Amino acid sequence: MTSKKIISNSRKYWNKIAIMYHDIVSINYKEFHYGPIIPGDSEFKLLPNSLKNIHSLELGCGGAQNSIFLAKQGAKCAALDISQSQLDFAAKYAKDEAVKIDLICSPMENISEDKLGSFDLIHSSYAISFSDNPKEVIKKSATMLKDKGTMLISTGHPLFSGEWIDLGDGEDGLFIKDYFNPTPDIRYDDKENETVRSTLYTLSEMTNWFLEAGLFIEKIIEPKPLKIDEIDKSLRKTLIPYSSNGWCDYYKQFSKIPGIVIFKARKFN
Ligand SMILES: C[S@@+](CC[C@H](N)C(=O)[O-])C[C@H]1O[C@@H](n2cnc3c(N)ncnc32)[C@H](O)[C@@H]1O
Fold first, then answer.
1. Which of 87, 88, 89, 92 has the fewest other C-beta atoms within 10 Å?
2. Which segments of the chain have a pLDDT < 70?
3. How many CB atoms lie within 10 A of CB 101?
4. Residue 54 to residues 31, 103, 108, 187: CA-CA distances in angstroms?
């Protein structure tokens, strides 16, 4: 399938499911989140020390909750998404929180410094796996970072493309068919047409995207989930930065195998 088709499928898919996504997934603005049912930045402390007046860009922002969090700390934020329906939610949330975010409707593959300028922080949470060419996205983004700028990217962990199998006696474990070629997650409609795909990559491949873009990797985190079984269901929305009932069902698996990997990279000219 061509890149153009993957991008246009993705736009249609996210426009179509935006209302349902925002109904099901709950993301709060009190925290900078990195992905489903894992701790936010108050635990990992990857964000720059001072957020006041920094320029930030979010890729695949969805409802732009992370940009809203940053704007509330005084950052000047731009946030980009392929789906106008997702950006409509972002605009509503920003208005509710009385912050201004520069919202841009574009595939992340088309970003360029001429159009957007340069940034102290470029971040993306659980979105680059939907890109057809994440390596190129990282390379272009690196050129848009200011000296000493930070890139914070979280995405799906390659092990999470494995299949969970019952080992008997209440135990289950992960079966990886081919670590070197993680199976893309491809969704189809009822006529068997592909609607959207997300692709995972090996850890070394992702690490090399940052290094080859001339960035220095400061930290890689394979986070364990929050202890959600100890959190009352009624409090989950407020205490878990990014949650949904569906993701909570993966708690047992997330406790054994990371579902997410977070990269913090910096630019030193
Ligand atoms: C799983 S959501 C994550 C959204 C947000 N980062 C969050 O944490 O809720 C993935 C987002 O990526 C966006 N997206 C998918 N493909 C994209 C692309 N090629 N360029 C820009 N955004 C894209 C979707 O519209 C969607 O909002």
1. 92
2. none
3. 25
4. 18, 17, 21, 38
Is the Cβ atom of 64 under 6 angstroms away from ligand 1?
A: no
Q: pTM (2 decimals)?
A: 0.96
Residue 126 Cβ inside 6 Å of ligand 1? The answer reads: yes
Average pLDDT, the chain: 94
* Closest CA to ligand 1's atom 18: 107
Nearest CA to ligand 1 atom 15: 130
d(CA 134, CA 149) in angstroms, rounded, equals 19
Q: Report the 10 Å Cβ neighbour count for 107.
A: 24
Q: Is 184 a domain residue?
A: no
188 CA → ligand 1 middle, Å:
18
223 Cα–ligand 1 center, Å: 21
**Neighbour tally for 130: CB within 10 Å:** 24
How much distance in Å is there from the Cα of 218 to the middle of ligand 1?
25
Ligand 1 near 6 CB (within 6 A): no
Q: Which residue has 């360029």 as its token pair? A: 112
- Dmax over CA atoms of the chain, in Å, equals 59
Residue 45 lies in a domain: yes
Distance (angstroms) between ligand 1 centre and the Cα of 219 equals 23
Q: Find the domain containing 224 and state its range.
A: 3-160+197-266
Q: Please report, for the domain that includes residue 66, its CATH number.
A: 3.40.50.150
Q: What is the pLDDT of residue 95?
A: 98
